[in-house]
Amino acid sequence: MIAQFSIVPLGVGVSVSEYVAKAVKIVDESGLPYRLHAMGTIVEGDWDEIMELIKKCKDAVLKETERIIIDIKIDDRKGHSGRIEGKVLSVERKIGKEIRK
């Protein structure tokens, strides 16, 4: 399963990178495969691992803020792993070149 999620703290000003960094540190320490992008984080694992990870991130950010918004998108496909890279490679093969990163 892969999940894309973002945690947005409200009422902390225009820049939220300080809070994003706290969450990404937790994701990195989890040992699960992940990719950070400009609008969120994609992580791969099983349901329980991912939900536990998102909860840890939520708890850490919510300790320092009054309110957060969490956006989660899940793609669960039986019998497949390595999909963070695999989905991108599939598109690159179809267009015949490496995409910009």
Write structural notes for this entry.
With 101 residues, this protein is α+β, with helices and mostly antiparallel strands. It has one domain: Alpha-Beta Plaits, CATH 3.30.70. The protein contains three helices and four strands, in the order βαββαβα. The protein has a four-stranded antiparallel beta sheet, with helices on one face. α1 (17-30) runs antiparallel to α2. The longest helix has 16 residues, at 47-62. The protein starts with a strand and ends in a 6-residue tail after the last helix. The relative contact order is 0.24. The mean pLDDT is 93.
Number of domains: 1
Order of helices and strands: EHEEHEH
Strands of the widest sheet, in order across it, are 2-3-1-4
Helix content: 40-55%
What is the average per-residue confidence, as pLDDT, rounded to a whole number? 93
**What is the fold named in CATH at topology level?**
Alpha-Beta Plaits
| Number of strand segments | 4
- Principal-axis shape equals globular
CATH class category: Alpha Beta
Radius of gyration: 15 Å
Number of helices: 3
Percent of residues in beta strands: 25-35%
| Spatial separation of the terminal alpha carbons | 23 Å
Q: Characterize the biggest β-sheet.
A: 4 strands, antiparallel
CATH architecture group name = 2-Layer Sandwich
Which secondary-structure class do the elements indicate? alpha+beta
Unreliable stretches (pLDDT < 50, length at least 5) are: none
